[in-house]
Amino acid sequence: MTTSAPPDLGGTHAAGTSQPDQVKKRGLGLALIVIATAQLMIVLDGTIVTIALPHIQTDLGFSDNGRQWVVTAYGLAFGSLLLLGGRLGDLLGRRRMFVIGVTLFWAASLLGGVAPNPGVMLLARILQGAGAAMAAPAALALINTTFAAGKERNRAMAVYAVMSGVGAAVGLILGGALTEVDWRWTFFINVPIGLFIAFAAPRVLKESEGSDSSLDLPGAVTGTLGLFGIVYGLSHAAQRDATGALAGWGNIWTLVPLIGGILVLIAFVLIEARVRHPLLPLRILADRNRGVSLFTMLLVGAGMFALFFFLGLYVQQVMGYAPIKAGIAFLPFSGGLVVSAGIASNLIARVDPRWIAGAGGLLAATGLWGFTHLHADSGYATGLLPWIIVMSLGMGLLFIPLTLTSTARIDPADSGAAASALNTAQQIGGAVGIAALSTVFANAAASKTQDLLAGVMAQMQAQGLPLPTGPAAQAEAMKAFTAQYGAQIQTFASTQGFWVAAGMILFGGIVTVLLLNVKHEELAADGDKATVHMG
Q1: Alpha carbon separation from 131 to 128, 154, 267 (Å, rounded)
Q2: Do 298 and 429 contact (CB within 8 A), yes or no?
Q3: Structural domain boundaries enclosing 153
């Protein structure tokens, strides 16, 4: 397919660069700004509201258990509708779905900002997730169809991956800063950003050709319901009841949605293998390299959760950081990710992606391993900062090659479906990480608590001190115990989570080195399928 160019405006610059080339570069730069800003807005919304949750709960009257649904409702809608959103972009036009998704997102953000009660807030979060599910796969697909294969696309993918990686950290910082003013601004901030994107997109992005294929309705229903069941089950496993007990894997509201979701997804695969125009063409997943990339991205999503969740708890509950200071503590992660993403985008033309991603997996796992050495009185400069930087460098080396290989050698007609598959892998990975690592954390905390309690009781008996009796005395004793040993228990439980997360990412890196077989020449070449679109 030939590469389109802007109209000839005539004349050249003194340096020998034609005006059409300058217009082309300026247009591509504006296109990348629009796409990257949308991706940043979508990703950071996953964490920006987290800091504001206590204030939202107080003002709107959420229960302790219901408060978590402010986060879960967004993830459920986003994760379960991604496949449908990606395919609608292929059928109806990716720019159209991008604009519709962004518009729905900012409108839902406005609704969340003025929400007077829990019902309206949850509706707003569901609509935000639906908008994100339309915009996110369209954004990634637009990169594939807007930037020519090779240096242009690799750099654009690097920016996209950086936005995906730093969004969570930026969300923590913004969430802390805006909550200091008013928690409603964590929603209102999306309105001007979304309006800018919706206004600029039709002017700098060219519409993709729609398809005359019909929507695979049975696939849309089964795919959405299957993903909903899995995301719901995984999210419920990590929730706590009014007593603080973790729901866990044996809870009926964890098992039934999980098993049901898996069964429905099996039906989805059978349907996709038979229909003429599938929602997710199985040829996308049949490619070994794409399958390896998606699998590793799932593990990377799970491991990323460990950094932001466990380390966020540690710096606030053990080190005593205020929310905004906790967010600022993650700034070096964003800086390291930007640096390593730039390195990876330059290396990808000369080094096979499996070696870059393999090195990234080793670095990221090493960073998580470094966090396993934290103790209750660790300092930021020596105990956290070095490993935050190491992990950020590893994540950049993982994100860039895996994002490229998961969408490489894809038919332009399937770009939206491939992009939604990548986003779905990341979302499911995050849900798996939340459920699995929260379970590890809870079990480790319970075990450490029992060990310390046994030691305290043995010491009291050895000294001839009476053990507390009666509910009031026992509650007071437990309060004193928690005040003395709470930081130690919290730290121990977090380090166990870091061990598991390090193993996940290391395994993903090993799988990538052994099984990924994309050559750097394929990613560096200006492929025949690349088309530069200018608005």
Answers
A1: 5, 27, 26
A2: yes
A3: 21-524
pLDDT tens digits, one per residue of 323-346: 778 778 888 988 898 899 889 988
Paired with 12 in beta bridges are: 18
Inside any domain, residue 2 = no
Q: What are phi and psi of 213, to 5 degrees?
A: -70, 155
In a domain, 531, yes or no: no
User: What is the pTM assigned to this prediction?
Assistant: 0.79
Task: Answer whether 344's CB lies under 8 Å from 404's CB.
Answer: no
Q: Is residue 13 part of a domain?
A: no
The angle formed by the CA atoms of residues 46, 50 and 53, to the nearest 5 degrees, is 140
Closest CA to 352 of 522, 523, 150, 519: 519
- Summarised one tens digit per residue, pLDDT across range 413-445 is 777 788 888 888 887 887 778 778 878 888 888
Distance (Å, whole) CA 278 – CA 276: 6
Q: What is the CATH number of the domain that holds 520?
A: 1.20.1250.20
- CA triple 322-325-327, angle to 5 deg: 110
Distance CA 419, CA 150 (A): 18
Within 93-150, where are the H helices?
A: 94-113, 118-146
Q: How far apart are alpha carbons 88 and 416 in whole angstroms? A: 8
Residue with tokens 């039934």: 256
Classify residue 347: in a domain, yes or no.
Answer: yes
The two three-digit tokens of residue 513, written as one number: 């080195």
What pairs with residue 246 in β-bridges?
240
The Cα-based distances of 407 to 149, 263, 309 in angstroms read 11, 27, 29
Count structural domains, the chain. Answer: 1
User: For residue 240, which phi and psi values (nearest 5 degrees)?
Assistant: -120, 150
Are 149 and 523 a contacting pair, CB within 8 Å?
Answer: yes
